[in-house]
Amino acid sequence: MSSYTAREGNAPDQVLIVTGGVGAGHDGAAAELRARLERAGLHVEVRDLLDAVPPFCRLLLRKGYTGSVRWAPALFERVFQDIERGTWVHGVVEWMCRVAQRRVGRWAEGFPVVVSTYPLASQTLGELRRGGRLHATVVTYLTDPAVHRLWVHPDVDHHVTVTEATAAMGTREFGVPMRAVGGLVSPTFEQEQTAAQRIATRRAVGLPVDGRVALLVAGSEGMGDVVPTVDAIVASGVADVLVLCGRNDRLRRQLSGRDRVVALGWRSDVAALMAASDVLVHNAGGLSLTEALTAGLPAVTYRPIPAHGRANAALLARAGLVPWPQNGEELSAAIVTQCEAGRQDRQVVLHHQDAGQLVRSLLNRVEAGSVLSSGEQTSEHPSGRTSVIVGAGHSSQAFPDTAAAV
């Protein structure tokens, strides 16, 4: 890889994060990575890939996602599958990424490390690298449990994931080395809460102090089959339901006042709400699922949204991380089983080196000049140290040892 050129007057310890303002998961991961790096004294900038595409593309990406999931789920699934198969739909996405390259290239000038938390940003950065117009080390942080085509680019140096199951899938199905670094969520999700704190949280939102509570999440926009899911849980009698409706005020009003249901809007105290709950019921596998894994809160997938939601559900079920019941009877049984199992092993997402440490290690390596040449790929020994495999056909840097970040 070519060397980068630091911006005049700036220290080389700086990182650019490129996210995508579609839903809250990509932005949430970017914000947490920024917070971790800034606590370490680094200069960080965050940019939205949607600001690099024409206005009509921005509208399509932002509104088309929520609109199609809500009103045309079959169409959304078809688009997803067409992208995976590399049809003309994938060509349209490639065109948008080409259009974005000019502005993203300008954003990246002077940054030794660039991190993507959004698939289209990864494609844009990978193409810039392939064309020799970007000399930074590029990292993709996958926010989805299941790896899909747009997350992977052979000219991105590092692909990192939340869980080992995701990393294994990416390496197996796409032939690209991946490494699990855990969740990019607030440290508050790792903190234990006392029984008194949990009771206080339940009382504050109107939940019963005793009995099971299922926390139902449907993303920042409250999408998917939320009402039928609530009805199924309440009808079974296995738990009271706390629903996070996000920005969907219509959904919150629709559910408010129902027996054994508490419906809330957008909240900033999700860690406390998870601590006060016994199980998470989700339909997408996004940020809330990562937060639950980090908190040790057992989870159940039910009626996942199409496309990446169903792909995520399948991967989580195959890996034995989250069950995916197919009907109301199976849902109630899964809720009881997960609640009885209690808090989960958080080592699924708590790794010895997180994404922030990895980025700091990469900065140290760039400063030291220990950068691999194009065509080199890496492999990790069981000891955790890295070796280099030559001739992989794309540029890839070694995953640095944890000690390099400390």
UniProtKB/TrEMBL annotation:
One GO process term, biological-process aspect: glycolipid biosynthetic process
A Pfam family recorded for this sequence: MGDG_synth
Transmembrane helix among keywords: no
InterPro entries, per the entry: Diacylglyc_glucosyltr_N (IPR009695), Glycosyltransf_28_UgtP (IPR050519)
Keywords of the record: Glycosyltransferase, Transferase
One GO MF term: hexosyltransferase activity
Region (Disordered): 371-394
Signal sequence region: none
Residue ranges of domain Diacylglycerol glucosyltransferase N-terminal in the record: 26-167
GO cellular component: membrane
Protein origin, superkingdom: Bacteria
Keyword Ribonucleoprotein in annotation: no
PANTHER family, per the entry: MONOGALACTOSYLDIACYLGLYCEROL SYNTHASE, MONOGALACTOSYLDIACYLGLYCEROL SYNTHASE 1, CHLOROPLASTIC
Family: Belongs to the glycosyltransferase 28 family.
Name of this protein: Diacylglycerol glucosyltransferase N-terminal domain-containing protein
Originating organism: Micromonospora globispora
